[in-house]
Amino acid sequence: MSRALAILKEVFGYHAFRGRQAEIIDHVADGGDCLVLMPTGGGKSLCYQIPALLRQQAGHGVGIVVSPLIALMQDQVAALTEAGVRAAVLNSTLSSGEASAVERDLLAGRIEVLYVAPERLMTPRFLDLLDRTRVGLFAIDEAHCVSQWGHDFRPEYIQLSVLHERFPNVPRIALTATADSLTRNEIIERLALDDARVFISSFDRPNIRYRIVEKDNARQQLLAFIKAEHMNGDGGHDSGIVYCLSRKKVEETAQWLAGHGINALAYHAGMDAQVRQHHQARFREEEGIVMVATIAFGMGIDKPDVRFVAHLDLPKSMEGYYQETGRAGRDGLPANAWMAYGLGDVVQQKRMIDESEADDAHKRVSSAKLDALLGLCETAGCRRVRILAYFDESAGPCGNCDTCLEPPSTWDGTREAQMALSCVYRTAQTSRVHFGATHLIDVLRGNSTEKIRQWGHDKVSTFGIGKDLSVSEWHAIFRQLIAHGLLVIDHGGHGALLLGEPARAVLKGEQSITLRRQVSKPAKSGERAGRGGTRTDHTATMDADTLANWEALRRWRTATAKSHGVPAYVIFHDATLAELARSAPESLDDLAEVPGIGASKLERYGDEILEALRAV
Ligand code: ADP
Ligand code: ZN
After folding, report:
1. How far apart are CA 421 and CA 504, in angstroms?
2. Structure confidence by residue, pLDDT tens digits, 393-444
3. Is the C-beta atom of 415 inside 6 A of ligand 1?
4. DSSP E strands: which ranges in 398-454?
């Protein structure tokens, strides 16, 4: 057995490497530089933690990990300490006395893995300290923070290239979950990683089930979804994140959910900093909190047991959507990504782009990104195929998204598309201005509204030709026409629709159009899929004995986490706990076989766990 595998087993309690972990670890332990692109939850931490231990044991010195996220550093150090690794952190949360103690340990070679904030690392004082220390490797986590184009840009990251100049013989491993090639090249350039090996993993997150429903009272739909799929046996519910576009909506939604029995908290940049931090800490440390947030609640959420991410508003781009949904299920267990969207969302995002201060080129890029996301919402094919294709990865239908599980039927919508397109054409021709979907649908359905009479649209030839279809059916058609580029949302922020280039061929009857059939009862889609088995509740499949074990273990874990001052998942992940409940080991030897239990945890908690199980 290789040393790396032995450490995986002894320290972390896992039996096999995942994906390219083994290759990466060998490469870095041998002193090579590399860039690792791996999705969230892919297992990046072990890629530098194990080489750090290997190199420390071989006498090369301490592994220095640069991370921009204070909460994440603290969790990692707590988890490593639990696993028996001599790990420490240096960041702004330490008192000067605590910091000096860490520095002394560092100089004395007593630390195996040290987490440092970038601004601390780059101080002349700390670099001097490193000159007097043996350094075994540098790991640069969240390496995309060097990218000036990304939203996580950290100016201090740019200076990290100094590491290479100052410590040319120390291997560097940079890691990120940001997939696009632009960011990748920027990292290589800015961190001077030209000779580094690049390890790219698939960005698929197979444990996440993607689902996009038509908006029809989104809050109620959200509540139905949580109730159907995320309640636990004991009346509580899973941890989850709900994203909304505006601060006001965040507040209102959190309040509304709380009024309906959900343990919901709000988070946005406009809140009092202290309250915000308190909410974040509760979300991290407690089990079963739903955080309703704007995208300000972002990087640094490394809570592994977030069981769902819900969107009540459309994000700006596929990148944003994938990053946000990626916060679900980091522990690899089943998780849900759920979104409710409607035409209004598209119009709103478009307006935000038009009204922004960006130049035209930037606006065009933003519009194209929005279009890609719209394509995802309206696709009749596999969502995952669509998402991965956007990131230049090809895949087959996944079997774990709404369109795979309940393939939408399609219909020949050529005639209806022609009606809608010619309605756009006629009304604009008559009035010399363009109109939005609501008005156009009124015209098609022959509603004699005041606006229609005022513009004389009851006289146009398309008035009333579409009265056989309901308003929501027409909405679905308009959304798809936009997604296909047959209609384009006008600049100017009012949601007016213009004919797109390909509309001509459809109007002339040269091209037919296949549309996705509207799901008949959108409000119920959560429940329906729920019966398909998305329940992520561990207890759902447990027999009575296992359930009793599980409850006893959870009580033990809660008490232990509390007395250690760490989140429950730092003690044991749910997966480990569930396996313990199922297998109910009766000896320390049996216990050691359970994934997630390394030598240190075995020694520390083994007897307590056996005792807790015996007492059931
Ligand atoms: P990332 O930093 O890439 O988002 P982490 O390093 O936090 O992911 O790993 C995600 C989860 O997967 C963690 O719970 C970790 O313990 C677990 N994990 C990583 N590698 C393995 C492995 N080889 N076997 C089992 N579990 C693993
Ligand atoms: Zn699919």
Report:
1. 9
2. 899 999 999 999 999 989 999 999 999 999 999 999 999 999 999 999 999 9
3. no
4. 410-412
Residue 111 CB–ligand 1 contact under 6 Å: no
> Cα separation of 238 and 289, whole Å?
7
The residues, ordered by sequence, that sit 6+ positions from 396 with a Cβ below 8 Å of its Cβ are: 382, 385
Say what the pTM is. Answer: 0.81
> Ligand 1: does its nearest atom lie under 6 Å from the Cβ of 19?
no
Tell me the domains of the chain and their CATH numbers: 3-200 (3.40.50.300), 208-405 (3.40.50.300), 410-516 (1.10.10.10), 544-615 (1.10.150.80)
Beta carbon of 210 within 6 Å of any ligand 1 atom: no
Residues 102-113 have a mean pLDDT of: 95
Cα dihedral sign for 422, 426, 428, 434? negative
Distance CA 579, CA 601 (A): 15
Most informative mutation of 18, 40, 45 for ligand 1 (most atoms within 8 A of CB): 45
Q: Among 141, 330, 601, which residue has the most ligand 1 atoms within 8 Å of its CB, making it the best to mutate?
A: 330
Q: What's the CA gap between 457 and 446, in Å, rounded?
A: 9
Q: Which long-range contacts (CB under 8 A, 24 or more apart) does 406-412 make?
A: 406/528, 406/529, 406/532, 407/380, 408/380, 408/516, 408/517, 408/519, 409/516, 409/517, 410/380, 410/514, 410/515, 410/516, 410/517, 411/514, 411/515, 411/517, 412/512, 412/513, 412/514, 412/515
Q: How far is the CA of 410 from the centre of ligand 1 (A)?
A: 40
Task: Measure 579 CA to ligand 1 centroid, in angstroms.
Answer: 17
Q: What is the Cα–Cα distance from 338 to 355, expressed in whole angstroms?
A: 28
d(CA 174, CA 487): 44
CA 540-579-325 angle, 5° bins: 65
